[in-house]
Amino acid sequence: EAQVTQNPRYLITVTGKKLTVTCSQNMNHEYMSWYRQDPGLGLRQIYYSMNVEVTDKGDVPEGYKVSRKEKRNFPLILESPSPNQTSLYFCATHKTRTGELFFGEGSRLTVL
Amino acid sequence: QKEVEQDPGPLSVPEGAIVSLNCTYSNSAFQYFMWYRQYSRKGPELLMYTYSSGNKEDGRFTAQVDKSSKYISLFIRDSQPSDSATYLCAMTSGFQGAQKLVFGQGTRLTINP
How far apart are CA B73 and CA B21, in angstroms? Predict the structure, then answer.
């Protein structure tokens, strides 16, 4: 079954405590991205990756890092989380020919 | 001004009604248009995809694009309680390079039995 798997699904943390949200896909897609979803703002792209070792900033990259060492994995790193990073995060892979995005089930992060 | 504007609702209609969901956009470079459906506590999933002006039908769903007016719509006929979800429009200028998709903020729809 084609899947995008994110972990953790829910996390409560405190300001400044580094955390990583993992994302793994089994569809062999080259393109992966991270989005955050906030009420009234919709889905906004944080970072994307067109292939292994190729990453670039999306619309709201401040406070986030990513890496793409393997095709299937694309972790999102918050080095020093702040309360304004409280949000619902989605990892997605992108089917090149059709533009279809396949989303994970989301990771709800609360930063106190 | 946002590139893509979508009425967030919420929208509540009785079962069997025809539902119309709409988005407007400002970037004339957008060529590909999509509708995603997002159930509560789930990631969005692709519902409809089109790249030209006009209508595209898939079962009870019809996607309509009017590039001259920069306006897209999704119609749901014979709406069912299982259609209750948030619907997001999305669009892009192409699928090469950055392949950036721009989303509307989503419309929350409830179909009442």
Answer: 5
Across the interface, whether the CB atoms of B101 and A104 are under 8 A apart is answered: no
Distance from CA of A13 to the nearest CA of B (A): 20
Structure confidence by residue, pLDDT tens digits, B100-111: 788 999 999 999
B45 Cα to chain A: minimum distance (Å) = 7
Residues contacting residue A54 through CB under 8 Å, at least 6 positions apart: A68
Q: pLDDT averaged over consecutive 10-residue blocks of chain B (113 residues)?
A: 86 96 94 94 92 90 95 97 96 70 92 96
| pLDDT surpassing 60 at residue A55 | yes
**Predicted pLDDT at B57:** 95
- Nearest residue of chain B to residue A6 (CA atoms): B43
- The number of C-alpha atoms within 13 Å of A9 and in the hemisphere containing its C-beta is 7
